[in-house]
Amino acid sequence: MPYTVDDARLLADPYAVYAELREQAPVQRITGPDGAPAWLVTRYDDVKQALADPRLSLDKRHALPGNYRGFSLPPALDANLLNMDPPDHTRVRRLVSKAFTARRVEALREPVQRVADSLLDAVEGQGRAELIADYAGPLPIIVICDLLGVPQEARRDFRAWTDAMLLPDPTRPERAKEAVGSMVRFYVELIRRKREQPGDDLLSAMIAARDEGDRLTEDELTSLAFLIHFAGYENVVHLIGNATVALLDDPKRARALREDPSLMPAAVEELARFDPPGALAIRRFPLEDLEIGGVTVPAGETVMLCIASANRDPARVHDPDRLDFERAGGAGHLSLGHGIHYCLGAPLARLETAVALGTLLRRFPDLALGVPRDELRRRPSIRARGLIELPVTF
What we know:
The chain is mainly α. The chain contains 18 helices and 10 strands. The chain is 50% helix and 8% strand. The strands form 4 sheets. A 3-stranded mixed sheet has the order 1-2-8, covered by helices on one side. Strands 4-10-9 form a 3-stranded antiparallel sheet. It has a two-stranded antiparallel sheet with strand order 3-5. The relative contact order is 0.18.
């Protein structure tokens, strides 16, 4: 009998469902998040191979008509790396890499630390906090604004636009569309100002980036700024939230990390493996009929690669449902991608998460959940794995 994916159970107990899928139906046709059919791939070897397979396109133009709906963006935000294949992807990534350097990211370490301390200073005397709204949420927004050179007066709008897209109000569906429009107008104007008066920021560096006379187009600039803002916020806020819960569930590991901060790099990799912020990689479309895990997937159909399942595949990771900071590199987790689409912002995500967790553990050694574990509310999404709220006491 074919395996049927129960959406409610997938939201409530995803890792149990992933385990069943890996065993019974590792390449399974499902109804995707947008209501359209999709193929869900759950085993590590299949997911890793597919992430690097050039026959799986990110370009939506290769989707069969009516097979994929997804989130519609205007052209000024859609010309980003998550919608591109080579050679466009190669050209744009090369140009962005000239601006988004390891040196630029490392220079953010002290500012990130200052932000983390100031956010915790604001709640320290209260004895309780809502860590998503008070800490995990504002930290990446402030960092991204610093990185892009966004003026102070626009930063509150940034958070509001992002929340309107990530947590749309069902009673006001027009707010997400309005947020997108506001982002386009803001980025167009900011790029104009940075072109006239460049600063020591990533957006100015992207405007100035050249490669044998080549440069980023206006749509590419606005799209990349949007991608850095949106992905940099969503992934980091969810990773910090998920990691905090995992550490509170495992006091022994939390204590070890507090007592020995040198464990933090390995801990960040393992926490990213254990409960990644993105359960699913960005959708892909086969350029031809393609065999994945012994199943033929027709050209143009939507393929969803389940990162969260692959990271806990026992064929790859020993005792995968246990948190273990001694795993080398998170046992080769796929939470930041693989191949040419490996996350461009991975070093920044690691830096922010390490600083955020280290500061939290050091400042609040008696940190505890403020509600029963089963009352934590998560986003109703099979794509993103994140908390809506994280009440804590200290």
